[in-house]
Amino acid sequence: MLRFCFLLVFLALVSCGPVTPPQQLPDNCRADAVQTQLLTGNWLNQAVIWRLRQVTLLEIGRKKIPLEGFLRLDLAQGEARLVAMNEMGLVLFDLLVTEKDQQLKRAIPQLQQVNGLAVGVAQSLRQIFLLPQPQVGDQLENRGYTQRLWRVLPGGSLGFIYDCRGDLRTTRFEADTGNWRVAYDNYHQFGESRLPEQIIMNDYRYGVKLSLWIREVKQEL
Predict the structure, then answer these.
(1) DSSP for 33-49?
(2) Is residue 8 over pLDDT 70?
(3) Residue 94 to residues 85, 102, 140: CA-CA distances in angstroms?
(4) What residue ranges define each of the domains in the chain, with the CATH number in brackets?
(5) Pseudo-torsion of CA 156, 117, 212, 42, nearest 10°?
(6) What is the DSSP code (8-state) at residue 204?
């Protein structure tokens, strides 16, 4: 995953993983949406194209790496194209990600020599934006002011937490093949859709934390 992408680029990293504070969910309303409402209302399940400008902080152990990027998120085709820059505006890489594959369009020479660059970044983008997604066959569990869609996986489970407004707040994957969590926070209205301004992914297996702050949102018509 992401640890492979920057392992040879940003010196040696310590083993202590970054800490994420508990997610705050609204508790002044009751979550009572039916399953179809949760599925169709999910902003990641809508056939639109978003152009997102985002600020990113990558934490591996005690190492903190600030990045900026422009993401073209084509949810209709299941594609994400990320142009990532450092804080000085230097383009580090240009990566096209699909649900099953990835293509590194360009990268600075130092990153071209890093094994697993495209695979690692692509996997993180899939987890946040493309896959996995809730499905019609998932179990629905009501928890008062939250609802959970979940399914059993080999050696674990996959769950999606929605708040009482019907916004997707957490994706939690814990199974033999991985252990990670994505939190979506600070939703705002953009046209007919609600998008989060902050996204935090924790990969507990590799001690990686990726925080995204979406600064600009445009829908491509």
Answers:
(1) --HHHHHHH-GGGSS-E
(2) no
(3) 9, 11, 38
(4) 2-8+29-216 (2.50.20.10)
(5) -50
(6) T
